[in-house]
Structure prediction request, 503 residues.
Amino acid sequence: MPLPNGCSINSAPLDDGEDAPPQCCSARLNLAVLMFFGFTVVYGLRVNLSVAMVAMVNTTGPRPAPNSSIVRACPLPAGTENTSDTFLQPEGIPQYPWDSETQGWLLGAFFFGYLLTQIPGGYLAGHYGGTIFLGLGVLGTAVLTLLTPLAAQFGSYWLFALRALEGFGEGVTFPAMMAMWARWAPPLERSRLITLSGSGGNFGAFLALPLTGYICQTLGWPAVFYLCGGAGCLWAVFWFVFVSDDPRTHRRISEAERDYIVNSIGPQGTGHGWSVPMLPMLLSVPLWAIIITQMCSNWSYYTLLTSLPTYMDSILHFDLKSNGFLSALPYLGGWLVSTLSGVVADSLIEKRVFSVTVVRKLFTLSGMLLPAAFLVAVSYAGCSHILTVTFLTLSTTTGGISASGVFINQIDIAPRYAGFLLGITNTFGTIPGVVAPIATGYFTEDHTLAGWRTVFWVAAGMNVGGALVYTIFASGKIQPWAVTEEERAEAEKRRSRSSSAQT
Prediction:
C-alpha cells in the first residue's frame, strides 16, 4: 500500500504478480474489449464530419471570380484538369456553400460542448461509478448524430449547435472510463488495460475515415450519420447488459479474479465521496505537468483528426475514396503502437527495469518528439503524395507511444480521483480541439502550401514544448493528498510496529 510520503501504489503488489488470474476471458479483459469498441464508435461519431464535409460542400475553396484563373498549390492529377471541384452526390442529396472559415467552425463545434462535461462527468463517475455515464454519453451522442442531416438542412448555425450538443454528451466518456479503471485495473496491468480500451479511438478513426468516403460516394453523405448513429445505439445495448461498475458487484466474475483485483487495488478502488481535495490538486505540480502536456499533444492530434481530409482534398487532390483511406492510414499505426506500448510499459514496471515515473516520462518523450520531427518533414514534402502520406503515417504511429505515458498518468498520482483528474486534464486538453481547426481555417484560407506549412510547424512546436514540460515536472508517484485515511492509519501502524521492534 502507498505511504504518505508519495510512494507509488504500484510498489506493493509487485510480488503478487505471479498469482494473478489469467487475463484471457477474464471480466477485466472483457471490460477492456467493450470499452475498445465503445471508443471505436465514439471516434467514428466524432470524425465522420471531417470526411463528409468534403461531400457536403459544393466546393472546398472560395469561388473564383468570373474570368479569373484558379491558382492551385499542387497540380491536379493527370486527366482531371478539366473536372469540376464540386463533388457530385447521388440525386437529391443537398450540398452547401460553406467557405473554409465556416468549415473550420463546424469542425471545432463538437469541442465547445465537449469542454463543459469533462469535469462534472469525472466527478460524478468517481462518486457513483462510470458505467451509466459512459453508456449514456455514447448513446446520447449516437442519437444526436442521427439528426445531423436535418440540422445541416436548417443551416450552418443549427449544425454547429447540434455538434456542440454531441460534444456535450460525449464529454463524460473518457473520465468515466478512467473512473471505472480505478476500480477494475490491478496496478501491474494498468498500462495494457487502459491503452487497449483507449486505443479504440485510433481504431475508430481508422475505420470511420475510409468508410465515410465510401458511403458518401455510394449512398450520399446523410447515410454516414444514420449508420454511425445506429452503431452507437447498438453498442449501448451490449454495454448496459454486460458491464458493472465494480468487480464486487459483477455477476459473472470468478471469485479468484474478484479477490485479486480488490486486494491489489486496496482502498484506492473505492469511490471518492462528495468531497475532493481541490486546493492540493490546484497546487500539484505533477498534475499541471499532465495538463500542459496533454494540451500540447492534443493540438497536433486534433489538427490532423479534423483537418487532414481537407488537406488531402484541397492540396493533394485525392478523390474522396482515396482521401478517406489515406487520412485513416496514420491511425492504424497509432492504434497498433499504443496497444503494444501498454504491454511494454507494464512489463518494464513489473520487472523493475524502471520506476513508474521513468516509464511515463520515457514513453511521453518518445511519443511527442518523434511525431514532431515527422510533422516538420510533412511541411517540406511539398506536393509529393508518397512522402506526405509516409510522414503523416509515421507521425501518428509514433504518437501512439505516449498512450502509456501522460495519457494514463492520472491513475498513477491519484487512483481514487482518476476520473475527476482526467475530467480536469481533458477539459484543458480539449481546448486545442476548439482552437486548432479554427486556426487551421485562418492559416489556410488561401489554400497555399505555405499556409499548411505553418499549420504543421505550430503542431510540431507544441509537441516539443509539452515533452520538455513533462520531462521536467511529471511524476508517477501517488501524491500525498490522494492517500486515504485507511492507508494513513495502516502506515501509522507500520511505523509504530517498526519503532517497537527497534526498541
Q: What stands out?
A: The first helix runs from residue 27 to 56.
